[in-house]
Amino acid sequence: MAFELKEEGYRLKDILVIVGIPESTYHYHVKNFGKEDPDRELKEVITELFKAFHERYGYKRITKELKKSAWCINHKKVYRLMRELGLKCVKFMRKSRRYNSYKGKVGKVAKNRLSRRFSTPIPFQKLVTDITEFKCLGEEKLYLNPLLDLYNGEIIAFGIKKRPTLDLVMEPLKKTIEVLGAQATYRTTIHSDQGWHYQHNQWVRTLKENKVFQSMSRKATCADNASIENFFGILKQEMYYGEKLVSYEELKRQIEEYIYWYNHIRSKEKLAGFSPVEYRTQTSQLAA
């Protein structure tokens, strides 16, 4: 091949520079042309896992999933094979847009009980909540309000509406209180920003009636609510950014499916590779 290129007046190394292929890579593939790929089966498994997790997993998570399936493999090799296969997680490209529901002081502003202490070894002890906005096809928008448990990152309940009404926060709050009544073993604190929903008398009264502590971030201090903002960022980057706009009903369905997947399937490194629900289930069994 090099001789043929030279006859035409081109040098091989010049061609390789133009197409962006290292000369060593070229000679490696020429030498191994026609040979059976020893990593063929592994590459097929990696490709299947990458697709099964909706192209949201990078090489580190893929490595952990391989180990769960009894593959003894180094993360560096998985990284190399994924590069060869062109499998790249490209979901994390933009920062999430934050919805701001602050309208000034319209009710009671509670003290900040969390003070950025976002970790806890006790389920349902510390919950955080906020509202985020999505654009839909046409002029419609979608508003999401989840309540997240800082124990394992699990979404306990959530509301989805076309407008940021009071029901958007009250409906998931009532569902959460039902869960707390059945499972909580420690008095719960629910932390939010100073949005008008969380200053509203109905929200404050419901918390008091159910012996739930209220906690609020200080105004213009987004770090006070970083845990729920981090969830919004992951959600939007993994299933919203880079995708075509869809109708409200279709986006609602996609978000509901994603939250189930996030709770039950998506592994987290700080949870020893378990999903939030798996982690809660495992730790409750050990405690018993």
UniProtKB/TrEMBL annotation:
Q: Kindly give the Gene3D superfamilies that the UniProt entry links to this protein.
A: Ribonuclease H-like superfamily/Ribonuclease H
Q: Please give the Pfam families that the UniProt record associates with this protein.
A: HTH_21, rve, rve_2
What's the domain of life for this entry? Answer: Bacteria
PROSITE patterns in the record? INTEGRASE
Where is the Integrase catalytic domain positioned along the sequence? Answer: 117-284
InterPro entries in the cross-refs: HTH-like_dom, Integrase_cat-core, RNaseH-like_sf, RNaseH_sf, Transpos_IS3, Transposase_IS3/IS150/IS904
* Gene Ontology BP term (one): DNA integration
Question: In the record, what terms sit under GO molecular function?
Answer: nucleic acid binding
Q: Which residues form a coiled coil?
A: none
| Summary of the function given for this chain in its UniProt record | Involved in the transposition of the insertion sequence.
Name the record gives this protein: IS3 family transposase
Instruction: Please name the source species.
Output: Paenalkalicoccus suaedae
